[in-house]
Amino acid sequence: MKNLLSMEHLSNEEIMSILDRAQHFENGKEPILKRAYNVANIFFEPSTRTKTSFEMAERRLGCTVIPFDAEFSSTTKGETLYDTVRTLEMIGIDAVVIRDKEDEYYNELLEGIGCAVINAGDGAGQHPSQCLLDLYTIRKEFGEFEGLNITIVGDISHSRVAKSNATALQRLGANIRFLCPPAWAGDFEAAHSWDEVLEDSDVIMLLRIQHERHSVSKNFSKESYHEEYGLTVEREKLMKKNAIIMHPAPVNRDVEIADALVECERSRIFQQVRNGVYTRMAILETILKGRD
Ligand code: CP
């Protein structure tokens, strides 16, 4: 694996290999990298989890993390992404982790760039490292994906997490359902109400409303969205025994999920964050070891 750009490029075997390696790291075992690789994290959109988690993973793998501040980079003077990455490559960077607001920004890096590219989120396109940590979290819980009912709720059409997870989980045998306001379903067919999906879901995966990707604001107050599409305290009581709640975060409490449920027994929201470090170690190791 040279790059990680989209879940559509990964075979089921490659996915399972990364999840196994994440488990290896969670078990406290060592990486197999032969040298200290140089990595830069290039984020043109805000991030708390993904950026910090990649940096923690890089440090645990013994990489040298070269600081890159998008706001003070020469991209603000008009330098292209290609020229930025090519420049970093010439300076000695082995891998770049990139988040950008453009869908498929990575297409301009496919020719002529020698360093590895890891997609940390492209617009409303894909978020493969989030997807892999979500898969790791689900596999830890249920052991397999085949036959699981997984319901993704919220701003589906603007969510890269929804697309990456739908692609991968369907291929791994899970039954994926969507629940969202009709205008946010995109190409997916969505359920009409919680009644159709609540009681038989093994996983309820909630999504934040991606206001930054909406061209027009929708007619929802926080309260009305929570009432119609949020996971309320009353709805949680109807969930199946052993069913879990997931959310890629950041969470808007009392909008997509009731404040009281964020750290309830069923919630895996903060475990997802922890699992992200092991999963990103596995992603980086898989890619970097191919450069030895
Ligand atoms: N889940 C996720 O991508 O969070 P950040 O935007 O904080 O990285």
Walkthrough of the structure:
The structure is a single chain. This protein has about 290 residues and is of the alpha/beta class. It folds into two domains: about 5-125 and about 275-290, Aspartate/ornithine carbamoyltransferase (Rossmann fold, 3-Layer(aba) Sandwich), CATH 3.40.50; about 130-270, 3-Layer(aba) Sandwich (Rossmann fold). It has eight helices and eight strands. The chain has helices spanning about 10-25, 50-60, 80-90, 130-140, 160-170, 220-230, 235, 270-290; strands at about 40-45, 65, 95-100, 115-120, 150-155, 175-180, 205, 245. The strands form two sheets. It has a four-stranded parallel beta sheet with strand order 2-1-3-4, with helices on both faces. A four-stranded parallel beta sheet has the order 6-5-7-8, with helices on one face. Strand 5, helix 5 and strand 6 form a beta-alpha-beta unit. Helix 1 (about 10-25) packs across helix 4, helix 1 (about 10-25) packs across helix 8 (about 270-290) and helix 4 packs across helix 5. It is globular. The model has no long low-confidence stretch (mean pLDDT about 95). Pathway: Pyrimidine metabolism; UMP biosynthesis via de novo pathway; (S)-dihydroorotate from bicarbonate: step 2/3. GO terms for molecular function: aspartate carbamoyltransferase activity. Heterododecamer (2C3:3R2) of six catalytic PyrB chains organized as two trimers (C3), and six regulatory PyrI chains organized as three dimers (R2). It holds the Pfam family OTCace_N. It comes from Solibacillus faecavium.
